[in-house]
Amino acid sequence: MKYGLELQNNIFAPWRLSYVAYDVLKQELKTRQLDHAWTEQDEADFVHLLDNELTKVYDFVNAKLAEIDARILYCERTIQTLQKNPTMNSDTNYSIMDEALTEILFDVNDLSRFTRVNFTAIQKILKKHDKWTGLDLKQAYVQKLREKPLDKQRFDVAIVYISALHDICRNRGKISPGNSASGGDQNAFERATAKYWIHPDNITEVKAIIMLHLPVLIFNTSKKWEPSDSAVSSVYFDNPNFDLYTGRLQRDEEAEAIRFRWYGPYESKNVFIERKTHHASWLDGASVKDRFRIDEKNVNAFVDGSYTVDQICNELRAKGTDEKTINDVHFIGSGVQKSFREKQLEPMLRVFYNRTAFQLPDSQRVRISLDTDLTFIREDALDGHQRRHPPHNWRRTDVGIDHPFSYIPEKDILRFPYAVLETKLQSHLGQEPPQWLTSLIESHLVHEVPRFSKYLHGACTFYRDRLPLLPWWLSEMNVDIRKARHENIGLTRSRSFKPLIDGRYRRAMIEEKERANQQAVVDGVASRSSSATSDKTAAEDTGKDTPTPLGRRRSMSIDEKKAAAWKPISNNSDSSVHRHQDFTAIELGTRNAQNASLVQPLLPRDKSAPHDVNDPYYNNNNINSKRMSSGYLPAPIGKFFSSDSSRPSTAVETMSDDKKPRMSLGTPVDADEENPGKPKRHKVKVRVEPKTFFANERTFISWLQFCALLLTVALNLLNFGDSVSRIVGGIFIGLAAAVAIYALYRFEKRAW
Fold this sequence. Notes:
Elements lengths: L2 H7 L12 H10 L8 H45 L6 H43 L3 H4 L1 H6 L8 H15 L20 E8 L4 H9 L19 E8 L4 H8 L5 E8 L6 E11 L5 E10 L3 H6 L4 H10 L4 H21 L2 E14 L6 E13 L34 E3 L3 E8 L8 H7 L5 E2 L5 H9 L6 E2 L20 E3 L5 E3 L4 H37 L9 E3 L1 H4 L9 E2 L45 H4 L4 H6 L21 H4 L16 H4 L15 H31 L2 H29 L1
Antiparallel strand pairs: 1-9, 1-10, 2-3, 2-6, 3-4, 4-5, 5-14, 6-7, 7-8, 7-9, 11-15, 12-13
Helix pairs in contact: 2-4, 3-4, 3-7, 4-7, 7-8, 11-12, 21-22
């Protein structure tokens, strides 16, 4: 599809006149070269026209942002009034404010799309100009685009404030229980994780969808939120042989990854020493993430061993820290310093991104993080170029958090083209993910990439000549992860431009959720005693409690032995298998019946709905064809959300497929037979909307008009025709009568 048509398909109708006049600019390029060569005057006129279009778009974006800020401020003041005035503090008023905030959120999403579409249009027309004229306007226009930027996501602040107000409306003016600054103890539960890539076109929409269900997690509520608060920087350590890289890629026993992480500005005083261990022997084979904090001024001394773990523990004791935490810090710090000594580790790679985390403050069931502006920066000196000054420092001093880091040489930086979405769900309680999350990850907005690792990706890009093995997902970089938009999925608008969420109005979603909550309360009362009994039995079966140690986080996504084996691929350039392609995908399918349990998806899917064979995700020649041929569904940790095997199976479930009773489409199911434990639902009369009745009536009248026309023809044939015409007229009368009876039957059936 030509970009002009693509642009027309992506235009938001109410803002049509504010888009870049792409067709006009393209026509200028064509018509001015029909009768003469491109001149300096032509160039000046075209640049002037392009400047006007850029200014028009930039001013529109700023005006809309100011309008959104004013609307958010109005909602904030109104909600504060509702909180302070008991007579106005009602569910109805909070619902009205919730709808107003939803409308603002949709405008933010539309404005984000508007910005990206216009930025792409300007890039396309500059490329076309340079191709047709032989000049280099694209490079010369960079400075103007920096002065009036359209390529940056400038809507995070608005989303954070909308999220906070949404949370207040969700709780009907009450403060959320729990600690919103920490989101609870993130290390206190086992979790199942999955990772996805998100195209830049879909980032704001995905944020908005998640925000409607989970508030943005603010880690420091003592100050006003700033964009720099979302910055996360990590320095990964390895040796010249890349032993840590190879161990993590091959998933060796007790393979570890060591990184030093800080949040916010470069000047942050707090640095977290983190270690990830695969199948840790001291935790009976579970994978774990350990971390503790030290001051930035002591990091170099910690690396060379002059700042010992005993000193850190003594400082903690002086602050009154409990002994268990001190013991954990001693264990982690000793292990990290031992790895530095024995493996000769040195700073290798810095990873930077802006993280937006979503989680209910009083619930640890679901936590979602979205990392944007992902950037990899070299910290090593393996090529003889010293990047750290002084050389013994643990990180570069010339790099801050000012993405896109235009001052860094291109050979030292890699800007990842997608955002990374990571879902973390509790797995030890046997809970299934919420339906809205299942819908999101099965939609066109995300692209699943199991076992994606930021460090592995950055290392294999910068140091490929030194690495014998490469990650499997490199082949996915050659695939356009954008997919055809699914109907009634995501944020859309009706014909009257009203906000629709997954094809439904916000109010309808809220009412449905309230009904589900009420039903859950009824069901919970009925099943409370049985669940308590089952929990007691489970506790007796385990024999003892095994809580996760403080400061350690178990990750079921990386230590599950039954998970599918995404094997690394060889980096042998002489191999005939890799001769004609840059990357080679690995085989993801299972090979025998013993691995049959690995084919379950991460989240429950509709078992009756086959995958779309036209979906590019399942048609990729390298990876996805193997997934389809082996019956594989792309999920790294299928067991965590599989069906509950502990419950007794029904008679129908134990039958073979050919013996199961089959029901025709539309046959009602007896609720008492399918769910004997649930109360029987009673049928109630539902008021039919007038528009539905009149639509049925219009259809009936249309059929009668056709019958009248058929009767007119039949009567003319009977009165003025020969014997053959009379026979045909009689047939027409019979047809008219049959059609009229059928129309009456359909009218009565639909009306009843």
